[in-house]
Specification:
The complex is a heterodimer.
Chain A (H helix, E strand, L loop, with lengths): L3 H8 L1 H16 L5 H9 L11 H5 L1 H5 L3 E3 L5 H4 L2 H20 L9 H10 L4 H28 L8 H22 L5 H15 L5 H12 L6 H33 L23 E3 H27 L24 H9 L2 H21 L11 H20 L10 H9 L19 E3 L9 H17 E2 L15 E5 L2 E5 L7 E2 L2 E10 L2 E11 L7 E4 L5 E5 L4 H4 L8
Parallel strand pairs in A: 4-7
Antiparallel strand pairs in A: 1-2, 3-8, 5-6, 8-9, 9-10, 9-11
Chain B lengths: L1 H56 L8 E2 L6 E2 L9 H4 L5 H6 L5 H11 L19 H12 L4 H4 L12 H5 L9 H10 L3 H4 L17 H4 L9 H10 L24 H4 L5 H10 L3
Antiparallel strand pairs in B: 1-2
Helix pairs in contact in B: 1-5, 4-5, 8-13
Classes of the chains: A alpha+beta, B mainly alpha.
């Protein structure tokens, strides 16, 4: 080929430059020059030989992708783009995760401070952290929906059984990845969620020496601390993404190898025609699939950005404290079912059941070998699946503190109104509306709707844990009547909600000025023993309180959808 | 396909606009977040203070209202006032200057809380030194203590009682009665003198400062022309006026470790001075 200077003398500088640029573009795209790209974008038919196929042979990134799809699988149904979306989320998490790594040190001394540094010193740091955390939850959701879709369309059936097997490993890894990131902020939420998880690992149905070794591997020391944090950090940023990456490529190779299964109604029972695509039904990767994917990429990025900026905020509780257990420790929503099971059955049984469940999912396509993928032919399978989904949803609900977790009634009420961790109605009251004084539940404060709301919530919480015996002149609210039962340890008072209610309780919210820019909020409960007047069943004194500094900015957080206050 | 290209392009541009908006409001958000971090640290520090420090330093850090952690009964405060103009106001604050501390008051408090004050009842609180608190908790409690020094509190140096030049003039004042040694013993405990000087009736109980059991005799030998009572009077009002020769750990340090704010702390009730003098003079 002529050198650039020869071309210049032959064609003039303008033409020569255009020709050179064309050549550069053709090399970069491994086969398409500028006019080919423009033609593709315009929707023109390709010239012959089709330059749009060459990148699939010559370039690394394109050779992974098939050069055309069956048109039937390029619509929203049957894939709902969920597999692609899972991949996108993995890339998204990798990028935002690497950015966060720059500002993070896996040490109990520094990690929590790093979080606040990201929030208050790193430009767009909060956005970055929200994107990563929101992305993690979206990814779990998307991967789970992808699995559900694959089941519903029967795409796990022959010949795609092994794709399903790798998919099961991928969903497990996704949940583990999301959960392993949970510990890294080293706040109370992280610390206690992982402690619950590890106590599960310890209870596995195996000889104690095995369990102890597993626990030691998982936390690096007899107790969760510096070694454990470092390990979970390494699981999160190195080991799990690496394994996930490996299985992702196996998974995707199988997808390309067997093709995306057509909608069940589109082929004869027992047929698999995904790879036999008639010319008329081909949709080429370039330009249709490519532009489609770019459009979705732009849309998802927009949604995630807007979501992280205005609608969803990554939680950050107080510094992890091994000696202070928050009242209600909850697992992340995608693992809440396991917490629900723990309340029902023996720990060892539950921990043993989970791997069994995973194995049964993995072997499912080799056992369930019915030929038909049609919905009408799979009534039994669908029934089992929907029962299982219902079971999981109920289990998830059982994982919440609403189910079978109870401490004393005054702590329960305080947990609803003013818990140690997390946002709550009290934090929704702006500092300047926390006027020092003594307030009763349900009291209306003129010109102070925030405090009025909080006091209404206080009364509502009280109403679940209170009952009326003779009435209390200091707090004349008519609760449900008490049902009294005599037990060996004294009388018990019940209402429809709890069998440990406060009879004729008195309660108040005290707001006092602690420092010139900080108030103290005290919830005070006084319940006289109806059987021994002058003695008190509950006298919480000064013990249930929290502070509110003027600059703490909780109300700022309340504008996010996932912060409840 | 053209529609898809258009949608994608618009979405991309909207993302850029959203990011641009986020970048514009970022400085304000960073400030808010810094405030939130400090505010929440102070809140946590307040709870740590209530649980650990208030027993000796008082509920409001003024070494005035102290309650036994177990029984809840009022007890004499063993610690020094922290909610004090001389500790929290100004950078460096008066206490930092008096001690010749080369650093900020934050570092001074953080260091003192971390490692305690050897010889006194003030223990080391940092976990590394055997205490119960983590470094972040010590930072929180330090922020809480310094948060007492708000603008209003620090606007004006607290005015002191006009202490006369000599003890005789002081005792001759109209409002001042003859000292009551029993009341003086209470003042001695309530001001926390015993934390450093020990109990006068127990030789060797002093940990930091000189033992005061024999100050009625030795006091007269310190400064020429000053009686023991005169000497003690001046030493309380200005600890650096004369550095005592014998402290438990060798010669007493110069500048004195004794806080210089007793002149102010006794201003509300100058009779305390007469009482404590009579107590120390063994009357």
């Amino acid at each position: 080929m002529a050198t650039f200077f020869e071309q210049v003398s032959e064609m003039g500088i303008k033409q020569a430059t255009i020709a050179k640029a064309d050549e550069a573009v053709e090399r970069l795209t491994a086969g398409m020059n500028i006019s080919d790209i423009r033609a593709a974008l315009r929707g023109d038919a390709p010239r012959r030989p089709n330059p749009r196929l060459r990148p699939h042979a010559d370039s690394f990134w394109f050779h992974i992708r098939p050069s055309f799809y069956h048109t039937e699988v390029t619509h929203i149904y049957p894939t709902f783009r969920l597999g692609w979306l899972s991949t996108f989320m993995f890339v998204w998490e990798t990028i935002t995760g690497i950015l966060l790594m720059v500002f993070y040190t896996p040490s109990p001394l520094l990690a929590y401070g790093n979080m606040w540094n990201i929030l208050s010193n790193v430009p767009l740091g909060q956005l970055m952290r929200n994107m990563h955390r929101l992305g993690a939850e979206v990814m779990v959701l998307v991967v789970a929906l992808h699995m559900l879709r694959t089941f519903l369309t029967g795409s796990y059936k022959k010949p795609r059984q092994f794709t399903w097997v790798t998919g099961m490993l991928l969903i497990t890894l996704t949940a583990l990845l999301s959960f392993s990131g949970y510990l890294l902020p080293w706040d109370q939420l992280a610390y206690w969620a992982l402690t619950v998880f590890l106590s599960g690992a310890e209870a596995a149905p195996a000889p104690p020496v095995v369990n102890e070794t597993i626990l030691l591997i998982l936390q690096g020391a007899p107790a969760l601390g510096a070694a454990g944090l470092l390990r979970w950090y390494l699981f999160h940023v190195l080991l799990l993404p690496l394994i996930l990456g490996i299985f992702f490529f196996v998974h995707y190779y199988k997808v390309v190898l067997y093709g995306i299964s057509l909608p069940p109604s589109r082929e004869q029972i027992g047929d698999d025609t995904a790879k036999r695509v008639p010319k008329a039904e081909r949709t080429y990767f370039t330009p249709d699939i490519l532009t489609n994917e770019l459009m979705w990429t732009a849309l998802i990025i927009l949604l995630l950005t807007v979501g992280s900026l205005w609608f969803w905020d990554a939680p950050l509780e107080h510094h992890a404290d091994p000696v202070v257990t928050p009242l209600h420790v909850v697992a992340p929503w995608y693992l809440a079912w396991s917490q629900g099971w723990l309340k029902l059955a023996d720990k060892t049984l539950v921990v043993g059941f989970i791997p069994l469940l995973l194995v049964s999912f993995i072997v499912m396509p080799y056992v369930e070998v019915g030929k038909s993928r049609r919905y009408a032919d799979r009534r039994v399978g669908f029934t089992v699946a929907f029962l299982f989904i219902a079971f999981m949803l109920v289990s998830n609900w059982m994982g919440t503190p609403e189910f079978r977790v109870q401490s004393s009634p005054e702590l329960q009420v305080s947990q609803e109104v003013m818990p140690q961790e997390g946002n709550n109605i009290m934090k929704g009251v702006p500092y300047e509306y926390l006027t020092p004084g003594v307030y009763l539940p349900g009291q209306e404060i003129e010109g102070n709707p925030w405090l009025t709301n909080a006091l209404a919530a206080f009364e509502e919480g009280m109403s679940r844990y209170s009952c009326t015996l003779n009435g209390n002149p200091n707090l004349p609210i008519e609760w449900e009547p008490c049902e009294v039962t005599q037990t060996g340890a004294g009388a018990k008072y019940a209402n429809h909600f709890t069998n440990d209610a406060m009879p004729d309780p008195y309660a108040e919210l005290r707001i006092t000025q602690r420092q010139s820019d900080m108030v103290k909020l005290t919830l005070f409960y006084l319940v006289e023993d109806p059987e021994n007047p002058g003695e008190f069943l509950i006298d919480s004194g000064d013990s249930i309180y929290s502070y509110r500094n003027e600059t703490s900015g909780y109300t700022e957080e309340c504008r996010f959808l996932n912060k409840d206050c | 396909m053209q529609v898809k290209v258009a949608i994608g392009t618009i979405a991309f541009m909207l993302t850029m606009i959203v990011l641009g908006y986020a970048a514009l409001r970022e400085p304000a958000r960073l400030d808010e977040s810094t405030g939130a971090f400090v505010g929440r640290s102070i809140e946590t520090g307040g709870q740590i203070f209530d649980a650990n420090c208030a027993t000796c330093h008082g509920v409001n850090g003024q070494a005035e209202e102290c309650y036994d952690a177990g029984s809840g009964e009022a007890i004499p405060c063993k610690g020094l006032p922290l909610n004090s103009y001389f500790l929290v106001c100004g950078e460096p604050s008066q206490r930092i200057v008096d001690l010749g501390w080369e650093g900020t008051k934050f570092q001074y408090i953080e260091r003192t809380v971390s490692s305690g004050r050897s010889g006194t009842l003030m223990p080391a609180w940092l976990d590394q030194f055997g205490g119960p608190l983590r470094p972040d908790q010590i930072k929180n409690v330090t922020l809480f203590i310094l948060n007492w020094g708000d603008e209003e509190f620090c606007a004006q140096e607290p005015s002191s009682f006009a202490w006369p030049d000599t003890v005789d003039e002081f005792m001759a004042m109209d409002d001042v009665q003859a000292g009551d040694p029993e009341a003086g013993a209470d003042v001695y405990l309530n001001l926390g003198c015993n934390a450093c000087h020990g109990m006068p009736d127990q030789e060797g109980s002093n940990a930091v400062g000189p033992w005061l059991g024999d100050i009625a005799e030795t006091g007269a030998t310190r400064v020429e022309g000053q009686s023991a009572m005169e000497y003690v009077y001046h030493s309380i009002l200005d600890p650096n006026a004369f550095i005592a020769p014998d402290c438990p750990t060798g010669p007493c340090t110069d500048p004195s470790l004794m806080p210089g704010d007793f002149a102010f702390r006794m201003s509300t009730n100058p009779q305390d001075m007469a009482d404590i003098l009579s107590y120390l003079m063994g009357e």
